[in-house]
């Protein structure tokens, strides 16, 4: 039976957009521009450590803790470089400001194959469309610069929602924004617990984008799995 869907919600990172290169490479290039030599691999490791610690200490970009998401990120970038041996505070500040700005644009982000075409087809079919993403407030601008924003009726970030996936409340906000019941909506994302399971927990349908080489989660029926984004309409209209 064809699903009677009226709203499609979308994860962004690694579903619609991906980084053009690993974080460590971008950070190393920025360091070189400031006359600082640091290995990209070391920076990637330091970034994972700094980002992980910051996320545990101040979840969801410091929401409700008096911290702006911009300050949250500037601190992560500085700490990443500190862990890689860079100590000069003025250089750290300059690099952090520049990188915060660079990650706000198509400079560091690109659309995944099939993203633009799939979104266009979904819009032509008359679906209402929204974004539900664990992202800070730069997302609106990033989507504009990557020429995807016009597909969506709304963009709901975890920063704006005040809670992050897999918290069901972010999906409930999206359903209110879309003006539909849970069973009239489906979520598309690449993360098993934050996207696939979390959307189903509030009564939505969901599809898991699983590119080649990802682990197999046994609970996902094959008709919910997308090998690529272009498989979506075929599954919805089955």
UniProtKB/TrEMBL annotation:
InterPro entries noted in UniProt: HAD-like_hydrolase_domain, HAD-like_sf, HAD-SF_hydro_IA, HAD-SF_hydro_IA_REG-2-like, HAD-SF_hydro_IA_REG-2-like_cap, HAD_sf
Species assigned in the record: Eolophus roseicapilla (Galah cockatoo)
Name of the protein this chain belongs to: Haloacid dehalogenase-like hydrolase domain-containing protein 3
One Pfam family matching this protein: Hydrolase
CDD domains, sorted: HAD_dREG-2_like (cd16415)
GO cellular component, one term: nucleus
Alphabetical list of PANTHER family matching this protein: HALOACID DEHALOGENASE-LIKE HYDROLASE DOMAIN-CONTAINING PROTEIN 3, PTHR46191
Family: Belongs to the HAD-like hydrolase superfamily.
Signal sequence, start to end: none
């Amino acid at each position: 039976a064809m699903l009677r869907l009226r709203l499609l919600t979308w994860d962004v990172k690694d579903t619609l957009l991906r980084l053009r290169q690993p974080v460590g490479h971008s950070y190393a290039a920025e360091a070189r521009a400031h006359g600082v030599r640091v290995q990209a691999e070391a920076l990637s490791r330091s970034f994972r450590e700094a980002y992980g610690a910051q996320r545990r200490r101040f979840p969801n970009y410091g929401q409700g803790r008096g911290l702006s998401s911009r300050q949250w990120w500037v601190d992560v970038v500085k700490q990443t470089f500190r862990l890689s041996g860079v100590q000069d505070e003025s250089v750290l500040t300059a690099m952090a400001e520049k990188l915060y700005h660079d990650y706000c644009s198509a400079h560091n982000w690109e659309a995944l194959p099939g993203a633009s075409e799939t979104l266009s087809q979904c819009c032509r079919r008359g679906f209402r469309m929204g974004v539900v993403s664990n992202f800070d407030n730069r997302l609106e601008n990033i989507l504009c610069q990557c020429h995807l924003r016009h597909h969506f009726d709304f963009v709901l970030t975890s920063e704006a929602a005040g809670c992050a996936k897999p918290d069901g409340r972010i999906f409930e906000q999206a359903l209110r924004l879309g003006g539909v019941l849970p069973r009239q909506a489906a979520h598309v994302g690449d993360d098993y617990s934050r996207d696939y399971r979390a959307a189903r927990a509030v009564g939505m349908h969901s599809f898991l984008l699983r590119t080649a080489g990802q682990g197999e989660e046994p609970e996902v029926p094959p008709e919910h799995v997308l090998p690529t984004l272009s498989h979506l309409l075929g599954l919805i209209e089955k």
